[in-house]
Predict the structure.
Amino acid sequence: MRITPLDVRGHRFAVKLRGYDKEEVQSFLNFVSEEFEKVVNEVSKLREESGHLKSTLGDLTERERILKETLFTAQKLSEEMKEEAKKEGRLLMREAEMRGQRLMDQAQKKVSQLEDSIRGLKLERDTFERKLRSMVEQHLKLLEMHRQEEEIADKLTFIKQKPPETAPSSS
């Protein structure tokens, strides 16, 4: 079951004698809803950015394939040119290899940058999830402490309300 910020904001608790402060509960639900909405928005942005990065990576992979085909074509052409003029062929071969290597180096550098960026985004997401989990656990502990304090207060009230014991009568 998925929960949305609207589900949190709209949730209503049953009212019981000595229940929680309605305003405080509603305020907390609004706060949690807003934080949850921020998380949902950030996850959406990260997914969008991840999709964009994957698209860019696909484009770079296609470019790499094209570069490999170009390099293959250049090598074939240089072999044909070697037969006609070995000297001219070696020169063209060197130029094609250098250009291909530069393009390969540039493509590999871009791929590395994208992979680094993706790793950074994953680290940010993991950090955010840990912080959110920690915050939720802290709030649960606070709620538990509040409940225990109320139980102690109720017990003290009960003890204070006990009628005094009557002294035995002497007859």
The chain has three helices and no strands. The mean pLDDT is 85.
